[in-house]
Design brief:
Distance between the termini: 66 Å
Number of strands: 4
Shape: elongated
Oligomer: single chain
C-alpha cells in the first residue's frame, strides 16, 4: 500500500487545492433572440449558435407548446429590432 514519505502541512495542501473552486458562469446575449445564454453553448430559447440554426426546438413540441414557443420567438425578434 502506498504511504506518503513526508507529512504534508495544511498550507501546502491549501496551495495544491487553490484552483479547485467553482468559477462564475459567463453569460452573453444571444445574437439571434437577444436573451442571456452561457458562452460557447447553443441558445436554449432559440437553438442558434454563432448565427446558425443548430437545434430545431419546435420539432419535438405538441401543437399548443409549438404555438406558445413561436409567439415567444416572434416577440423576442421584435424587441431585438
Amino acid at each position: 500500500m502506498a504511504v506518503p514519505k513526508q507529512h504534508r502541512s495544511k498550507s501546502r495542501q491549501g496551495q495544491r487545492r487553490m484552483h479547485y473552486f467553482i468559477k462564475e458562469q459567463v453569460f452573453i446575449l444571444c445574437g439571434h433572440c437577444g436573451k442571456d445564454t452561457i458562452s460557447h453553448r447553443v441558445c436554449p430559447s432559440c437553438g442558434y449558435y454563432k448565427g446558425h440554426k443548430v437545434v430545431d426546438l419546435l420539432s419535438g413540441l405538441g401543437k399548443k407548446e409549438r404555438k406558445q414557443k413561436e409567439k415567444e420567438l416572434a416577440v423576442s425578434k421584435k424587441s431585438k429590432v
